[in-house]
Known about the structure:
Layout: E1 3-10, H1 17-20, H2 31-35, H3 46-49, E2 55-57, H4 70-78, E3 82-85, H5 90-99, E4 103-105, E5 117-121, E6 126-129, E7 135-137, H6 143-151, H7 154-163
Parallel strand pairs: 1-2, 2-3, 3-4
Antiparallel strand pairs: 1-5, 5-6, 6-7
Helix pairs in contact: 4-5, 6-7
Amino acid sequence: MSKLEGAVWKFGDNIDTDLIIAARYLNTSDPYKLAEHVMEDADPEFAGKVKKGDIIVAGKNFGSGSSREHAPIALKYAGVSAVIAPTFARIFYRNSFNMGLPIFELEEGDEIEEGSKLSIDMDSGSIENLSNGKSYKFKPIPEFMQNLITAGGLMSYAKERVENE
């Protein structure tokens, strides 16, 4: 899975894990129940509008706050295929890959408009805005991290490795 395509949802700076999935919903580990409430406090209608493959483009410091893994899980199970932001909280960055949700650091995300259609090539480190023809480069994702995404996350990756040895 080296290419992703989807429509853009925009969010601002400092979207923390409580805005991604509020603490009041952490009484379940069912990823589909979490997805029903994803981004609810930032956009109450988001969970009902997001489509499989859609992409979040946010401002700096996305995923700050607690280290809960529920945040990338809720995004992934809601259908979000990737998150693009200039910076991410480090624990969110690692949790995202561990859960199989690709994220990309891109300074120029503010140039991308909500509703634009993007194509992301993880191998080449490029993002193409299919709506206006602009292209962007990001640091390519290391092969190991791509393998985590392809496997669906760290647990699936580890299970595959054990079964193949």
